[in-house]
Design a protein that fits this description.
The chain contains 8 helices and no strands. It has 156 residues and is mainly α. Helix 1 packs parallel to helix 8, helix 4 packs parallel to helix 6 and helix 4 packs antiparallel against helix 8. The two termini are 30 Å apart.
């Protein structure tokens, strides 16, 4: 398996192809806006919605980088959690979930077009791997929040 194929496989595994751990898509499946907004007690905890915002931003930024363009929004780490405004409106939550799907799709297309030579430039391959590990980390947080609120399916 070449490097690009391996990165694409890792991208799919963290998003929607279950491997040794539940992927992101399964972690947010079936949530309502109210569940996505719920926040565990504590000043430093984030909601599922905030975590999803954070992951969307970095995927959109990486796809833009691979495509050779910039993002219209340049956010710092803390600002990324507020990429979209949280509400109790299920329609707005669904739009965020759809944006996550679009970000994944665009990143997959951009990565698929990226050559090995480009991957080797400026530690780009390392950045991609960091993003994938970052996705897995925050997906684990999302699942933990769901377990805390009682919305994680017991069959998993």
């Amino acid at each position: 398996m070449n490097r690009n194929a391996l990165l694409l496989r890792m991208l799919d595994t963290t998003y929607d192809n279950e491997s040794w751990y539940a992927p992101f898509k399964s972690a947010i499946e079936g949530l309502t806006a109210e569940q996505a907004r719920w926040r565990p007690t504590g000043d430093t905890t984030k909601s599922i919605w905030e975590n999803v915002n954070h992951l969307i931003y970095y995927k959109e930024r990486l796809a833009a980088n691979l495509e050779g363009r910039g993002l219209s929004q340049n956010l710092d780490g803390d600002e990324t959690f507020n990429l979209t405004k949280q509400s109790n409106d299920d329609k707005e939550w669904i739009e965020v979930v759809e944006r996550a799907e679009i970000a994944q799709s665009k990143l997959r297309v951009a990565l698929n077009k990226t050559t090995t030579e480009v991957l080797e430039q400026d530690s780009l391959e390392e950045e991609i791997i960091d993003i994938l590990l970052h996705d897995a980390y925050h997906t684990g947080q999302i699942i933990q929040i769901r377990k805390m609120q009682g919305s994680w399916p017991s069959h998993r």
